[in-house]
Amino acid sequence: MGALSSGVYRIVSWPDATGPDARVLTAGANGVTVTAPGAASEREQEFSVEVLEDGTCAIQVPARLFPSRSLGYKEPEKGERVVLGPLSDFPTRVWKVEPAPQAPQPAAYFIRVPDKDLQLAVSSAMIFPPELELAPFDSDLQYAWALLPVKTD
Predict the structure, then answer these.
(1) Are 148 and 17 in contact (CB under 8 A)?
(2) DSSP state of 8
(3) Distance CA 8, CA 132 (A)
(4) Tell me, what's the pLDDT at 87?
């Protein structure tokens, strides 16, 4: 699995990234959630991932517009809800996107808070649609994400 490159991606929870139970990262009126493929507009399920010089990544939506909102959080703490920052958020929150050591297919990545032992995870709260939160790092694939490239014309 090579290094992640900048581009537009559909970010899907692992392990069922390409199966019938796939859950896609979705930016909507209710914030950042995971929903079924096609349960929201393509625009809400496509994220721009910009790999920066230091290896961290900015994850933004909508993918093809400027300005856009970045995937972020208020404080890097366990249980903190993952939200979309305002259009004026600067500097943009960055993430460390690391390949899973298990090297499954499609490629799985852990989306982590730089310099913290926290990662992006689907919340265990029993709400619908499921929200995202920061959770302690765990290399189990249930916390991994597939970044599926979106073809752009």
Answers:
(1) yes
(2) E
(3) 20
(4) 66
